[in-house]
Write a structure and sequence with these properties.
- The structure holds two protein chains of two kinds.
- Chain A is mainly α.
- Chain A is about 90% helix and about 0% strand.
- In chain A, helix 4 packs antiparallel against helix 6, helix 4 packs parallel to helix 8 and helix 4 runs antiparallel to helix 9.
- Chain A is elongated and about 70 Å long.
- Chain B has one domain: P-loop containing nucleotide triphosphate hydrolases (Rossmann fold).
- Chain B has a six-stranded mixed sheet with strand order 6-7-8-3-9-10, with helices on both faces. Chain B has a four-stranded antiparallel sheet with strand order 2-1-4-5, covered by helices on one side.
- In chain B, a hairpin with a 2-residue loop joins strand 1 and strand 2.
- The longest helix of chain B is centred in the C-terminal third of the chain and has 18 residues.
- Chain B is globular.
- The mean pLDDT of chain B is about 90.
- Classes of the chains: A mainly alpha, B alpha/beta.
Chain lengths: ~260, ~250
């Protein structure tokens, strides 16, 4: 039983890795032959990014605001109010913005990708693509993969911005800080590598969400029930992978910063 | 000519094809009959290279396509069209984009030329002016006809029909059959039709093959099939529940 689970897990990881490599192959192939479909990419970016904007905005504002409430009073008691903005911006840029944005997008977009491709699979649309000499990875995965990675990068910038806006409003109106001291604290403590590290993570998470969503779609079996299972599974596996990979990325980025940027 | 030779395919422990042998001549319309779930669609999917057999060969114009690399297989598929059982229209694309799919991806035709071809094919299948409808706005029969327009858009030499009339009313069934015959006459294509609809089979066939138990048990013209002494054939064409052909 346990060995079957491990075998299944290893097989899935292997298949997803192959899907990722095929995606890279088709991207390079299309760029070389001038067949990269910008229209498909923009369509996916619009679906993935623009449609997630509201959810990401709410998540960002509330996270920034709650962070300031949680640490603002503690820091005020210790007389360290001037650090509130900096600490909040560091937490947002390094961890919270990429992770929370990725989780929101995994729930919204990862599930939609798995459901769409899964439905295509059970209604023979994937077979139809192949009969028209069109590789499903080329047509379906490549635009979703790049749409997801690019938009997660951009959405994370957006989460950082709205998070700091939410945090600054709470800091000024509830904690009693001035906007200038909050801003100075942010500018003093937040470094460009903190932002870039978080954005790099977000980009990787975008790729993970797209690949897992597509993989779960392609492996859908049965009818509507199968699509439901793939959809749920895509979200659960994406979030677990994001959390697991986040640890290794954090360690890697810290080591990189220590070695080259300090 | 298409030759299917000793084709075997299993899914887990279930053996679906147990040594299928079949010859389809250029320009003919071969109907493959058989009960539901006997592996007719699986056979069709092997002929267009969507499935790899466990054993045997599918030879098209002298070449075994089961060993084709992807590029060669794609080149072959450009010469073939397939109408799926569920029509398999792309939900996110409108009728024009569905029919034009192959033309946009594999030709350098202008938008105007593609629009012209699409309109012509839609006219052929009796659906003029439906270019900008979405698949969700079409009835079952209309979806099948759009699927057929898509299958013939690239002017293929071979068309595979997977249950083209299943789920359609008798009038629509007749319309699809007539369309099939007119395409054969106008384009001279080779057709392979998988169905369990006898009436439709008799209308469109040059020859009929009966698929049962993972093999082709009888093949011949309509008259040869009707007069066949084979009890399996007789049970199927009479639609009897009792006989050598057991219900699945």
């Amino acid at each position: 039983m346990f060995s079957n689970l491990v075998k299944g897990f290893v097989e899935s990881i292997g298949s997803m890795s192959i899907l990722f490599m095929q995606t890279i192959y088709w991207t390079i192939h299309n760029l070389k032959t001038g067949r990269f479909s910008v229209r498909n990419l923009l369509d996916q970016m619009s679906r993935i990014g623009v449609d997630s904007l509201l959810m990401v905005a709410i998540t960002g504002v509330s996270t920034g605001a709650v962070l300031v409430v949680q640490i603002g009073y503690q820091f005020a008691q210790m007389g360290a109010q001037s650090y509130v903005g900096g600490v909040v911006s560091l937490a947002m840029a390094r961890e919270l913005a990429p992770i929370l944005t990725a989780i929101v997008v995994a729930g919204r977009v990862g599930s939609a990708i798995a459901a769409e491709i899964g439905t295509m699979k059970i209604t023979e649309q994937i077979d139809a693509l192949e009969t028209m000499a069109t590789n499903p990875v080329d047509y379906l995965v490549v635009p979703r993969f790049w749409g997801c990675t690019i938009m997660l990068f951009m959405l994370t910038i957006f989460t950082n911005v709205v998070g700091m806006i939410g945090g600054s409003i709470v800091a000024v109106h509830q904690i009693g800080l001035t906007l200038i001291s909050f801003k100075d604290s942010v500018l003093h403590m937040l470094l460009i590598q903190d932002l870039m590290g978080g954005l790099f993570k977000a980009t990787v998470f975008g790729g993970i969400i797209a690949i897992i969503g597509c993989y779960k779609g392609f492996t859908t079996e049965g009818g509507a029930e199968g699509v439901g299972q793939s959809t749920t599974s895509a979200v659960v596996v994406s979030i677990m992978m994001i959390l697991a990979v986040n640890y290794f990325l954090t360690v890697g980025i810290n080591n990189f910063n220590t070695a080259y940027l300090q | 000519m298409i030759i299917v030779s000793n084709l075997h395919k299993s899914f887990g422990s279930k053996r679906v094809l147990k040594g299928v042998n079949l010859k389809i001549y250029d320009g003919e319309s071969l109907v493959i009959l058989g009960p539901s779930g006997c592996g007719k669609s699986v056979l069709l999917k092997h002929i267009i290279g969507l499935m790899k057999p466990d054993g045997g060969q599918v030879i098209i114009d002298g070449e075994d396509i089961t060993s084709f690399e992807q590029k060669k297989l794609d080149a072959l598929r450009m010469r073939m069209g397939m109408l799926f059982q569920s029509a398999a229209l792309f939900d996110s694309l409108n009728v024009e984009e569905n029919v034009a799919f192959g033309l946009r991806r594999h030709t350098n035709l202008t938008n105007r030329a593609i629009h012209h071809i699409v309109s012509e094919k839609l006219e052929m299948v009796g659906l003029p002016g439906t270019n900008y409808l979405m698949p969700s706005e079409l009835s079952g029969g209309m979806r099948k006809r759009v699927g057929l327009a898509r299958a013939i858009a690239m002017e293929p030499e071979i068309i595979l029909y997977d249950e083209p009339t299943t789920g359609l009313d008798p009038i629509m069934t007749s319309a699809i059959d007539e369309l099939h015959l007119s395409l054969k006459e106008r384009l001279g294509v080779t057709s392979i039709v998988v169905t369990h609809d006898l009436k439709s089979a008799y209308r469109v066939c040059d020859r009929i093959a009966l698929h049962f138990g993972g093999q082709i048990v009888e093949i011949g013209t309509r008259e040869e099939i009707i007069n066949s002494p084979n009890p399996v054939v007789q049970q199927f064409i009479r639609g009897e529940a009792q006989g050598p052909m057991t219900l699945l």
